[in-house]
Amino acid sequence: MRNGQTVETWNEDGGTSTEQSYKNIPFYLTNRGYGVLVNHPQRVSFEVGSEKVSKVQFSVEGEYLEYFVIDGPTPKAVLNRYTQFTGRPALPPAWSFGLWLTTSFTTKL
Predict the structure, then answer these.
(1) d(CA 69, CA 50)
(2) CATH classification number, 5-97, choose in 3.40.50.12780, 3.30.390.10, 2.60.40.1760, 3.40.630.10
């Protein structure tokens, strides 16, 4: 994210014609030694240094908001603590890093 940008995250099948991701994680990492995880199952909006917001603002629909501030002191330390908190995935088997095909796109030969 850059200054003046608003990013909305939510999980939705956007297909192949949009930039929408399948699994959004409402987490942002700063260069100031902390990250913020917004624990909300619906749309989360982040706004960074715009005309309306001088720093960072996040908002959700509804009346309930839960978020976690994860301190560093470095981005690597923040990510380590974030994955310690949320869980770390198992390493996929070696064969899964081989050739990968998809049916979402067609190729003309």
Answers:
(1) 22
(2) 2.60.40.1760
- Antiparallel, parallel or unpaired: β 56-60 and 27-29: unpaired
Determine the average pLDDT of the residues in 11-27: 70
Kindly state the tokens that stand for 30: 């700063």
The distance between the two most distant Cα atoms of the chain, rounded to a whole number of Å, is 54
Structure tokens at 4: 């003046």
Residue 80 identity: N
HSE of 75, CA atoms in CB hemisphere, 13 A: 6
Look at residue 14 in the predicted model and tell me its pLDDT: 64
Q: Which helix (H) or strand (E) holds 70?
A: strand 67-71
Evaluate if pTM is beyond 0.85. no
Environment class of residue 9 by beta-carbon count within 10 Å: exposed (0-12), middle (13-18) or buried (19+)? Answer: buried
